[in-house]
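Open question from group meeting: does this chain pack into something compact, or does most of it stay loose? Before anyone orders reagents, we agreed to write out a predicted structure and look at it together. Recording both the input and the output here so the notebook holds the full record.
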Amino acid sequence: MRMRGVNSTTWRLGQEMRPYLWHLVALFLISVMATPLALLTPLPLKIAVDNVIGGHPLPWVLDMLLPAALKGPDGGLLILAVALTVAVALLNQLREFCSSLLNSYVGERMLRDFRAKLFRHVQRLSFSYHDGQGTADSIYRIQYDATSLQNIVMSSIVPLFSSTFTLVSMTYVTARINWKFAVIGLAILPFVLTASRFYRRKMRRQSRAVKKIESSALSVVQEVLGSVRVVNASGQEDREPQPFHHP
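Structure tokens returned:
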């Protein structure tokens, strides 16, 4: 029964993500670009220290790609190191700008469409549901609970894939340098996964309790402000905040 519910939630999440599939793929590719740019960051410093100051030969890849004019003793390598530093910094800023822009665009479009679906769904519910739950609960679902979809997709799923790619790449590079350091770095993963699994259920229950309290508080505010003329006429302004503190 539990697996059926998980599969149903996953299927519905996939249905909500389908119209934005190519946008999410583009966002994933932009996020993945952070890994090679991070690996390129120390390269200019290596060229300046090892090859310009230390006089060591260039790595065979750079030696094959660079023209002879840059490999001469007239400061060409130093100019190359400075140019690479500026280029990597500009590419990093451009990647972050594109990622932020696409993240905001997709997230807000997804949130708007999901809120519209919830609004249409709430309108089709029976009068008994609205009488039992109240309009404030429906308003809370549309205005605040709808943001959960945006948070799951934009703040969890896309970063999960890009972070996994970064972890695998960094582990590979570290293992090529020293496999013992890579093993030490990965040794903390079982503890992180165990702690996350242990506290997940407890945090989920507490999150649902907080949502219920927030919905009740919004219901109190709506009721009081909806009858503000009656409250002011009867002089009950000081008594009305009490239910808000203890919904």
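Observations to bring back to the group:
Residues 203 and 209 are 10 Å apart (CA to CA).
The mean pLDDT is 75.
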